[in-house]
Design brief:
This protein has about 325 residues and is an alpha/beta fold. It is about 35% helix and about 25% strand.
């Protein structure tokens, strides 16, 4: 049961709850201490997404090399009406919502059917969530928006209860690929608790493909992804009084063919010691030592089906873009 009080802002159409005031601060501190004192240094990618990081990621989505967003939007543009018709959904819960561009395609389809009741965006960036909520509230007559500022990996118990309206819970953008296999299945099992018999999970998955295409998507020519990667160091400096010199770290991204995932790392350009005052921590880096900041697993249909089955879910529908670079799977509870 949730015991922490939410900070709430509410009007007749929009309700915003924030659960991150203390929980996220603890999470960042714990993750940084554990990750930077491990034998192999690593930091979780969820900490990229402060206001600056969210803005950088929006720029990444428009880069010519970054096909993922365009491919997923292509599927949604062609299939949103079919997905909504099959699910009879009137509520959309979007985990890691960010920009409302993709959600709007599903909301449009629900609205056209006269079924749209509620949108529940969930994001760690309160500014991005609030802006999106205000934008959408003005577009859809009668739409109720219940925004949740939370880390969905840890705080799914903060989600509003279903009210009997069939819901689609969406985890788009191949966000599921940021989790290693055991954590991925555990998260999917948690998400399954949000579903009733008539509800569905809509999950985006980047597919296995030519490594050259994958590596280009994470090493863009404009250097936006590199700056996004380094943003995690700016977050640590600001939130934990660190003294990282972010330009002293080189962006590295490569495909691991054995694991079939992309990795992003930060590589120290020189030997240095970093102090993180709020943790009373000093961290030494050798020249060219690396910190892993993200994995992004790539999927086959069989792999995603297996992950979903381990969480008590089964694939009901499977859609890809014309070039079969990306997939959207619609899943429901087993049985």
């Amino acid at each position: 049961m949730a015991t922490e009080s939410a900070l709430q802002r509410q009007d007749s159409k929009i309700r915003i709850e924030s659960w991150l005031a203390r929980a996220d601060e603890r999470s960042l501190a714990d993750n940084v201490r554990k990750g930077l004192t491990s034998r192999v240094k690593q930091l979780p990618p969820k900490h990229f997404y402060d206001e600056r990081g969210s803005a950088l990621f929006e720029r990444i989505c428009d880069l010519p090399e970054y096909y993922l967003t365009r491919a997923e939007r292509e599927i949604l543009t062609e299939r949103a009406e079919v997905i909504v018709s099959a699910t009879e959904a009137g509520e959309l819960v979007e985990l890691g919502s960010g920009s409302p561009d993709k959600a709007r395609l599903l909301l449009d389809a629900m609205f056209a059917r006269g079924a749209l009741v509620r949108y529940v965006p969930v994001d760690v960036s309160e500014a991005a969530l609030t802006d999106a909520a205000a934008e959408l509230a003005s577009e859809y007559e009668g739409l109720q928006i219940h925004g949740v500022v939370a880390d969905f990996e840890r705080q799914l118990d903060r989600m509003p209860q279903a009210d009997g309206t069939p819901r689609v819970v969406a985890l788009l953008g191949s966000t599921i690929g940021n989790f290693p296999p055991a954590s991925r299945r555990a998260l999917l099992a948690q998400i399954a608790t949000l579903l009733g018999a008539s509800d569905r999970l809509l999950i985006g998955a980047d597919l296995v493909k030519d490594p050259a295409v994958l590596e280009a998507a994470y090493n863009d020519s404009q250097g936006v992804t590199a700056e996004f990667n380094r943003n995690i160091l700016y977050v640590i400096n600001r939130e934990l009084d660190g003294d990282f010199d972010p330009p002293a770290f080189e962006h590295v991204a490569f495909f691991d063919p054995r694991q079939e995932w992309m990795e992003m790392r930060l590589r120290a350009r020189r030997k240095m010691t970093v102090r993180i005052a709020d943790l009373g921590l000093e961290v030494s880096f050798a020249r060219r030592e690396e910190v892993r900041t993200e994995i992004s697993a790539k999927f086959t249909r069989a792999r995603l089906r297996s992950d979903l089955a381990a969480a008590g879910l089964e694939v009901r529908e499977w859609y890809t873009d014309d070039e079969e670079r990306f997939a959207l799977a619609v899943a429901g509870l087993l049985g």
